[in-house]
Amino acid sequence: MAPAPSSTTSAVTLHINGEKHQLTVDHRTTLLDALRERLDLTGTKKGCDQGQCGACTVLVDGRRAVSCLNLAVAAEGREITTIEGMAEGDRLHPVQQAFLDLDGYQCGYCTPGQICSAIAVIEEHAAGWPSAATDDVRPEAGPPPLTPDEIRERMSGNLCRCGAYVSIVQAVTRAAEAHEAAARDDDHAPTAEGAAA
Question: N or C end of the chain, less CB within 10 A?
Fold first, then answer.
């Protein structure tokens, strides 16, 4: 049973990987520490603990967040996805599979944060969001091609101390291509109305 809240603690409900977790946390508890120390979700790694290395990256409402700089109380009611929530049973997320196929990791410590970021990068790019490396940011220019420079810029918040950057860029490229192909297939899939016509 969770201890009763005090003036320095709050009861929070965290929605993580599709499950609700009720906790009483000190107001200063970071999301990272709540995940690792309270919920035993140790796939999210503690690196610099200053928001500079990206090892603790998770998705909050589908967007990247460094969990060491976010408070657990601020995550109340938001959808949090950690590396533990990426695969569907034994089937890896396409980004995880691409990292595995193309050796986008070495020691693997930064890999969970890299994969979370890569998934968000692909979604951000598909939505047409520009990056600092995008030459033409006019809306009518459309989404920029996801070049290696675009991937490097968009992934620049995640450091790999082993230096597996080339493989990481290749893995993100492959996963992005698969994502685009799936989106095209969905656009051309017959609709119920079309099938009935």
Answer: N
